[in-house]
Write a sequence for this structure.
């Protein structure tokens, strides 16, 4: 396990399929990459970038994301989502995130995550269920 530091970068890639479209997930009527899917993949890029640097009983949770989705991506095209850790403030992590398809930049912005203890966070969520 390395040392968590500003500047680390990671990415995830996927091919846009029917399941990733605005029409399929209900965020629109077109057969193009849905904005919520792009956001989900940007978040995945962020958490998977830092996870190897965290203690075994820790993970990160998303708390804020501010991104634009500037260009449509059709079914069958590869998308790469990149996250760069740009600031660390105790448990708060700030990322610059960008998404690209095979023709260029399609969106990006900033994303904030917090380091949490996995068991405590899950227990807090489960405590909301009425007995």
């Amino acid at each position: 396990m390395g040392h968590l530091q500003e500047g680390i970068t990671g990415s995830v890639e996927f091919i846009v399929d029917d399941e990733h479209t605005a029409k399929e997930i209900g965020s629109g009527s077109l057969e193009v990459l849905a904005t919520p899917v792009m956001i989900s993949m940007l978040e995945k890029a962020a958490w998977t970038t830092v996870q190897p640097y965290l203690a075994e009983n820790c993970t990160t949770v998303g708390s804020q994301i501010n991104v634009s989705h500037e260009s449509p991506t059709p079914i069958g095209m590869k998308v790469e989502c990149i996250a760069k850790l740009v600031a660390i403030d105790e448990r708060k992590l700030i990322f610059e995130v960008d998404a690209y398809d095979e023709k260029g930049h399609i969106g990006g912005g900033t994303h904030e995550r917090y380091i949490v203890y996995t068991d405590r966070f899950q227990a807090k969520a489960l405590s909301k269920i009425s007995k």
User: Anything to note?
Assistant: DSSP finds three helices and five strands in the chain. The two ends are 40 Å apart (CA to CA). The chain has one domain: 9-126. Strands lie at 9-15, 58-69, 78-89, 92-101, 104-117.
